[in-house]
């Protein structure tokens, strides 16, 4: 059975609706955005990957954690048990805080979910990326346009390497998180989740390339897990000692 990236695994992306039609790169995708901004209004489902947050942080020249505090909400994915960030709608009006004058004020650093819309994306455990056509009633028809044109226009093809690595890293972490949840006491597992949030989202220098930092952070996350497992062993021994 093919394993798919679930939307709560901490990556950005539209949830692929059942029955959505898979599109090949050279198949027609005659959609052009009208720039009405409706897909930025009243939404609470725009998930961010660490790469998305790093791009916004670089665009705003702020540390990722500062951007997250100001514009995002962190929660724990129900299935994955991983920390997940989503864009938080503005308190007043409920629209995306980056929507200014009907336009995206961070257009050149917009999250993958925004760049994809109205496409769905799926990344499987082999790293295969598929795109799906989802029903929408917005935009206008652009005759002759292909899926490949859209991916290029919105920079989606250029970031595939990052999104693939992020998805695979999150899938592997989700498998480990299931074991850590069984092994560790709740207080230590929560500490582990905080470490994962740090490594997946926050401990990045926006002036440095993303991917090497992600690889380094993943090593750090697994090293932290070992430390917590050792701590758990010591706690367990202490409890059973007479
Ligand atoms: S993708 Fe659709 S809803 Fe969003 S701005 Fe473009 S036309 Fe409007
Ligand atoms: S980040 Fe930009 S494109 Fe995405 S929802 Fe906000 S305003 Fe819209």
Characterise this structure.
The structure is a single chain. The chain has one domain (about 1-240). The strands form 4 sheets. It has a 3-stranded antiparallel sheet, with helices on one face. A 3-stranded antiparallel sheet has the order 3-5-4. About 45% of the residues lie in helices and about 15% in strands. The chain contains 7 helices and 10 strands. About 35% of the residues are buried. The chain has about 240 residues and is an alpha+beta fold. It has helices at about 50-60, 65-70, 110-115, 145-155, 160-185, 185-200, 210-240; strands at about 20-25, 30, 45-50, 70-75, 85, 100, 105, 120-125, 130-135, 140. Helix 1 packs across helix 2. Bound molecules: iron/sulfur cluster (2 copies). The site of one iron/sulfur cluster has 10 residues, from loops.
Explain briefly what this protein structure is.
With 242 residues, this protein is an alpha+beta fold. It contains seven helices and ten strands.
Distance between the termini: 49 Å
Bound molecules: iron/sulfur cluster
Helix-strand pattern: EEEHHEEEEHEEEHHHH
Arithmetic mean pLDDT? 91
Radius of gyration: 19 Å
Computed structural class = alpha+beta
The number of strands is 10
Write the layout of secondary structure elements.
Blueprint: E1 21-23, E2 31-32, E3 47-48, H1 50-60, H2 64-71, E4 72-76, E5 83-87, E6 99-100, E7 103-104, H3 112-116, E8 119-123, E9 129-133, E10 140-141, H4 147-153, H5 160-183, H6 186-202, H7 210-240
Antiparallel strand pairs: 1-9, 2-10, 3-5, 4-5, 6-7, 8-9
């Amino acid at each position: 059975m093919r394993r798919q990236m679930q939307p709560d695994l901490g990556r950005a992306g539209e949830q692929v609706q059942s029955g959505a039609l898979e599109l090949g790169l050279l198949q027609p995708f005659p959609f052009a955005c009208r720039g009405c901004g409706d897909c930025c209004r009243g939404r609470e489902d725009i998930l961010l990957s660490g790469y998305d947050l790093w791009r916004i942080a670089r665009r705003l020249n702020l540390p990722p954690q500062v951007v997250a505090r100001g514009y995002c909400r962190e929660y724990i994915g129900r299935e994955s048990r991983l920390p997940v960030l989503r864009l938080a709608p503005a308190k007043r009006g409920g629209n995306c805080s980056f929507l200014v004058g009907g336009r995206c004020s961070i257009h050149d650093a917009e999250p993958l979910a925004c760049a994809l819309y109205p496409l769905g994306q799926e990344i499987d455990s082999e790293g295969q990326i598929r795109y799906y056509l989802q029903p929408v009633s917005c935009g206008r028809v652009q005759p002759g346009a292909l899926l490949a044109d859209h991916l290029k226009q919105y920079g989606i093809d250029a970031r595939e390497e990052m999104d693939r690595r992020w998805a695979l890293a999150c899938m592997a972490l989700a498998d480990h998180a299931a074991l850590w949840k069984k092994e560790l006491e709740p207080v230590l597992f929560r500490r582990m989740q905080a470490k994962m949030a740090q490594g997946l989202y926050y401990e990045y220098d926006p002036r440095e390339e993303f991917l090497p930092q992600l690889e380094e952070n993943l090593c750090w996350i697994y090293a932290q897990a070992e430390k917590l497992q050792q701590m758990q062993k010591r706690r367990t021994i202490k409890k059973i000692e007479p």
